Amino acid sequence: MRKEDLISDLIYLLMAGIVLLVGFLVVQPAINDGLLGSNTGENVLFILVALIVGIVINVILMELGHLLGALIGGYKILSFNVLGLNFYKDFSENSAKGKLKFRFKGFNGLTGETIIEPKREKANPMFYVFFPLILFLLEFVVMYFVITLVPGDSNTHFDPEQIVKFGLIISTTIAGCIVLYDYFPAKLDTLNDGYRLISLKNKINIEAYNEKLKLEANEYKGIKNTEFKVFEEITDFTAKVNLETALKKFNDGNFDEAIQIIDSCLAKPEKVSTSTKRSLLLNKVFITYISKGKEEGSKLYKELDEETREIVKRCKTLDSIKVYSLFIAYDQKSKSEVKYAINRARKLYDHLTVGEVEKEVALFSTIIKNILDFDSELIDSEIIKDACNSKTDSKAYKDLIDYQLNLSKKEEVKEE
Predict the structure, then answer these.
(1) CA pair distance 259, 169, nearest whole angstrom
(2) Rounded to an integer, what distance in angstroms lies between the CA atom of residue 260 and that of residue 287?
């Protein structure tokens, strides 16, 4: 088990412990005294409603804090997602000015996702990271004054004052759990604000973070990135930007340069997190498969540690799916597993921006072509459709279908 997962599990246990303590030491006595209802049904109803309202309130506070902090820090808001409710700017008609729209969409994060773009080079991400904590502290202050002002007992069931008081206690408990997780000063199983706070103390990380946001914003707006930086000083943030540059080199056919950039990051493994190192390694394997063929790619794949190979087989990330689809095609010639892997990729597309999807579709198109060249029987139209995010009218889909047809014609000519 990697360090991030172990710490995450401990934090989850601690969060559960906090909830149980508040439940047994604060809420249960109130239930026993009849303050929250006259029977079990009313008590259960109160707890369920309080939990749902508390979660919604704190999720909104978290993402609202990110939004306000981003605006104060000098960023534009491109997308604001709270539990799948996504208000976003659509740049499909005009890349310079987006139209505000609404949709239901998946997200990457604990409570939601706010996509931002720096207005200037020296935009300060610390406000974006820190502002949710200020809103949570205000919630704690409100709870303190309510508890102080509201009497400790009541002669009636479902007394509005008691409902508000204990509802606030439950909501603030949820806030405490979110704060504990999101501001824990280490990288957990998602990129939390506590990790960002520590990392962004380093000037080079702020520069790299803003560079990464700029690249992601361009992809979101459908603008092709043409300028990519390579950072010599390696940190978790600079390594991620360097990886974007390496993939750009790969797309341009500069395979050796791409691998050199990745190797420069891997040469300092102590400077990057386990997840970033793993992403670098998997992309190196992917690029090696494409540029140097089956033997070299499989050799590098088998040098991966056992845990990483297990992650590849589970196909939980796009990086792992790229490697798995090539390995399973070359090593086992399994059409069903290739189909499974590419279908998993299509489902993960739902969490990406339009520009990110286009970038991934281009990479998976390269994979499909390589598998077709190896064994055309491993790819069918359904796999091609999934690789292209079910967009059968897209250029990527039509190009792959044409590639498949031309390959079939060549094979027919050979047989004759």
Answers:
(1) 53
(2) 11
Q: Which residue has the tokens 């409603």?
A: 49
Half-sphere exposure of 406 (CA within 13 A, CB side): 8
pTM above 0.85, yes or no: no
Give the integer Cα–Cα distance in Å for 118 and 320: 30
Cα separations (Å) of 3 from 28, 188, 205, 265?
36, 8, 22, 20
d(CA 271, CA 276): 10
Q: Which of 19, 18, 47, 43 is nearest to 33 (CA)?
A: 43
- Residues 74-125 pLDDT 10s: 999 999 999 888 999 998 888 778 899 998 887 776 678 888 999 987 899 9
Residues 6 or more apart from 338 whose CB is under 8 A from it?
Answer: 325, 328, 329, 371, 378, 379, 383
Give the orientation angle of helix 160-182 with respect to helix 40-73, to 10 degrees: 50
Whole-angstrom Cα distance, residue 328 to residue 321? 10
Q: Residue 19 in contact with residue 135, Cβ under 8 Å?
A: no
Output DSSP code: residue 190. S
Query: Rounded CA gap, 141 and 119, in Å?
Result: 34
